[in-house]
Amino acid sequence: MIYELQGRHETQGKHIHDEATIRELRKSPEFAAEYLRAALEAADEPRVLLIALRRIAKARGGIAKVAKAAGIERESLYRALSAHGNPRPPTLVAVTKAVGSKLTVEATE
User: Fold this and answer.
1) What is the pLDDT of residue 73?
2) Hey, how many other C-beta atoms are within 10 angstroms of the C-beta on 39?
3) Tens digits of residue pLDDT in 19-58
4) Contact present, 50 and 83 (Cβ < 8 Å)
5) Contact criterion met (CB below 8 Å) for 83 and 74
6) pTM for the full model?
C-alpha cells in the first residue's frame, strides 16, 4: 500500500506498521531480542530504546501485565516508556526482565 506522507494517511501507515511489528514481537522471542539489541545500538537516539520496550511490552501482554511483573506501577511504566520518558536503570532492568530479556554490556573495541 502507498500512503501519503502527511495527514491521516501517515498516521494510518504508522499504525499498521506498529501493529505488524507487535505481532512479530509476540510470535518470536528471537526477533524481540534482536529488536531490543538494535534499539540499544541506536545510542545517538535514546528514545528508540523506549519505543522498542513499549512495543515489546504491548506484545508480551500489555503495559499493565509487564508493569505488574516488573513490580512497577502501571502509570509509572507508561510515563517511563513515553516519548519523553526518562526511566532509571533499575526500571529498565526490571522491564527487560519482565518481557523475557536482559540488558548486557560488552566492550566496543
Assistant:
1) 96
2) 19
3) 888 999 999 999 999 999 998 887 678 788 899 999 999 9
4) yes
5) no
6) 0.79
d(CA 52, CA 57): 9
pLDDT band of 11, cuts 50, 70, 90: low
CA-based torsion, 98, 61, 22, 4: positive or negative: negative
Identify the residue whose cell numbers are 513499549.
Answer: 54
**CA distance readout (Å), 101 to 7, 53, 74:** 36, 10, 19
Long-range contacts of 81-87 (CB under 8 A, 24+ apart): 81/50, 81/53, 81/54, 81/57, 82/50, 83/47, 83/50, 83/51, 85/50, 87/50
Residue type, 34: E
The closest of 6, 60, 73 to 29, measured between CA atoms, is 60
